[in-house]
Write a sequence for this structure.
C-alpha cells in the first residue's frame, strides 16, 4: 500500500486508464523542423550526427525535417536536397555518394576556374605594352640583374634557414643540463688534484 494515495498501484490502474484520452487517429507528421543556412562543408548536424546535403545549396536557406525514421532537407521552395535514414547512434557522418561526387566535381571546377583566371591575368600582364622606352627597359633589367647578383649578408646565428641559438658553456661542465643535474665534469685543474 502506498502511503500517500492510500491504495495499491494495481488497484488504481483501471481508474487511471479510464481517465486517459484516446490517441489521435494520425500521429504528428514531424518530430521537429527548423530552418538554417547550409555551410561550406555541406553537412548539417542533428543529434550529434552529420548528414550530407547536396552542395548546390551551399549558402542558401534550407528547411530540415526530422522524424523517428528519416531526415529530409528541402529548399524553401520545396525541392528535396537530401533524404537520409535517421541514425540514432552518436558522432556518425552519413554521406550520400551522389552528394560526395557533386562536391568533388564542384571543387574541381572551382580550382580549374581559379587556375585559368590566374593564368589569364599573368598572360595579360606579360603582353601588356610597357610605357618605358627600349633603352630604359634595358637599363632596368641590367640593374635588376646586378641587384640579384649582390651577396646577401649572412646572419651568423642562422644556418640553412633556421635560427641557431648560441651555446652556453659553463666552466667545468659539459653542458648546461649536466650542470643543473649535478653530473658535470670537472675542469682539467680539478681533475689533476684528485
Amino acid at each position: 500500500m502506498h502511503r500517500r494515495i492510500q491504495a495499491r498501484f494495481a488497484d488504481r490502474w483501471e481508474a487511471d486508464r479510464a481517465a486517459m484520452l484516446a490517441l489521435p487517429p494520425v500521429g504528428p507528421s514531424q518530430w521537429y523542423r527548423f530552418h538554417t543556412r547550409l555551410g561550406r562543408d555541406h553537412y548539417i548536424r542533428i543529434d550529434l550526427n552529420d548528414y550530407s546535403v547536396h552542395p548546390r545549396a551551399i549558402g542558401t536557406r534550407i528547411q530540415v525535417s526530422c522524424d523517428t525514421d528519416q531526415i529530409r532537407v528541402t529548399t524553401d521552395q520545396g525541392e528535396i536536397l537530401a533524404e537520409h535514414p535517421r541514425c540514432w547512434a552518436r558522432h556518425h557522418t552519413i554521406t550520400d555518394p551522389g552528394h560526395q561526387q557533386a562536391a568533388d566535381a564542384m571543387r574541381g571546377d572551382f580550382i580549374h576556374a581559379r587556375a585559368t583566371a590566374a593564368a589569364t591575368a599573368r598572360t595579360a600582364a606579360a603582353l601588356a605594352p610597357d610605357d618605358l622606352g627600349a633603352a630604359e627597359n634595358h637599363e632596368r633589367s641590367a640593374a635588376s640583374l646586378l641587384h640579384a647578383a649582390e651577396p646577401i649578408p649572412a646572419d651568423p646565428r642562422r644556418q640553412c634557414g633556421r635560427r641557431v641559438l648560441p651555446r652556453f658553456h659553463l666552466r667545468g661542465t659539459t653542458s648546461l643540463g649536466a650542470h643543473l643535474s649535478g653530473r658535470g665534469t670537472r675542469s682539467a685543474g680539478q681533475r689533476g688534484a684528485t
About this structure: The first strand starts at residue 32 and ends at 37. Helices lie at 9-19, 97-127, 134-149, 176-181, 188-193.
